[in-house]
peptide chain release factor N(5)-glutamine methyltransferase (Vicingus serpentipes), 286 residues
Amino acid sequence: MPENSIRAIKTYFINELNSFYEQSELESMFYITVAHYFNFEKKDFILTPDKRFSESELLKIIYCVKDLKNGKPLAYIFGEWEFFGLPIKVNESTLIPRPETEELVDIILKESNQVVDILDIGTGSGCIPITLKKQNNNYQVFAVDVSKEALKVATQNAQLNEVEVTFLEYDILKNRNSIFQQQFDVIVSNPPYIPGSDKTEMANNVLDFEPHLALFVANHEPLLFYDAIADFAKINLKNNGKLYFEIHENYGNETLDLIESKGFSDARLIKDINGKNRIVSAQLIN
């Protein structure tokens, strides 16, 4: 067991993990970890470098390091992750929220100022609909997922963040008809879009822990979900309603072509903060 000063804890954390992660990544992971467990920020390390912790607190670090050696992502070790400044519970039934999805949410918020009905398809942890509702309480927000376990987590997250979102179990691939009484102003989805052939290029901590159901599609059908959701949206969007997708960076033009072939207008391909094709939006004008 390491000594109980914050300096010793940092040395232990980095020395134990330096053969598993890059140095710059380890620094970031350490500060995220002590902030989560001890509410100890980076500035506190400078102000109180000799801060000491109890044995039970040290054990949290030791168990965390053990999990990190096995490749388990910090989000699953903590059981939650921050998204758009909100705490979002996660487990291995839900994807870990990504910064790219924050960009998707930000675009919707900027372009949907009125009271609107919004549907999120394939909601996972519920981070998209919960954030939209938290940022604009005038929104009426609905979300669906095929996974019962993911919906349990999403419901917990709505309660945690004190917002009202209607969650329902629904499989868009088996039923493209609506289960709702109303139409929507906005339909958004971050569906599975990674071809199975991409697995060889992906990190083990993603492959070993995150739900493949939410990640992968067959190599010969990379746009499977976009096709189904676009068909659903044609029936269930209001006139002038908008469709928003997060996409695979390599299928931007193909996704645009698909959406336009379905009769949507004003289709746009939007790059993320890293300059990669990441978002497609379009409008249904009847």
Notes: DSSP finds eleven helices and eleven strands in the chain. The chain has a mean pLDDT of 93. The two ends are 67 Å apart (CA to CA).
